[in-house]
Amino acid sequence: MNQQAGLSLDNINNLSVSEAQQWFSHCCAAPKWFEAMAKARPFTDICQVKQVAQELWLGSSNQDLLTAFEAHPMIGDVSSLRKKYAATKDIASNEQQGATQASEQTLQSLADANHKYLAKHGFIFIICATGLSADTMLNALMQRINNSTATEIQLAAAEQIKITLLRLEKGLEKGIQTT
Fold it and tell me: 131: which DSSP letter?
């Protein structure tokens, strides 16, 4: 399936199951979530898509959450941003725009703090970075780094659904490249 400008809900509803799974996987990489989203079709409107997305996400296991987190680039790592966003560039490219405009010192601080966070919690720091400056992201990371891992999984899951909902909206506006 090629990228479609102005992909409609009808297009999504009429995709094959495997194409729909692939489409939804660009919004969230948790397999159980994107498989369930494909099965939940047809949708009547974007509100229903978002409602089902949230309900399914709330029922996700920790393994599903961690799988989704693994698909994200580390905040501030510009080279991994390019690599990981290659398949979802139309809907995810601006998510860390604040990091791409940061000073080298801030990027280094983000990288250092991210590595400490990863070592402590076993997954990268997740934040819905849209519209946030690198300094704001760094401050949030520093505030959360000493939380328990159980708390961080829940906070990261709350951030992940924000990201997913934004990607769903953008995907319906612009279309998503799935080949």
Answer: T
What pLDDT band is residue 102 in, cutting at 50, 70 and 90?
low
Which two three-digit tokens encode residue 32?
A: 């159980």
The first and second tokens of residue 34, run together, are: 């994107």
Measured CA distances, 40 to 17, 37, 92, 170 (Å): 10, 5, 24, 20
Task: Name all domains of the chain by residue range, CATH numbers in brackets.
Answer: 9-174 (1.10.3330.10)
Q: Which of 81-85, 91-95, 101-105 has the lowest mean pLDDT?
A: 81-85
**Do 168 and 52 meet the contact criterion of CB atoms below 8 Å apart?**
no
Long-range CB contacts (within 8 A, 24+) of 58-65: 60/30, 60/32, 60/33, 60/157, 61/32, 62/153, 64/30, 64/31, 64/32, 64/33, 65/30, 65/153, 65/156, 65/157, 65/160
Compute the C-alpha angle 139/145/150, nearest 5°.
Answer: 135
pLDDT (tens digit, 9 = 90+) per residue, 152-176? 999 999 999 999 999 999 988 765 5
Q: Residues with catalytic annotation?
A: 72
pTM of this prediction? 0.82
Q: Scanning the structure block, which residue is given the tokens 């409602």?
A: 51
Q: Distance between the two ends of the chain, CA-based, in angstroms?
A: 6
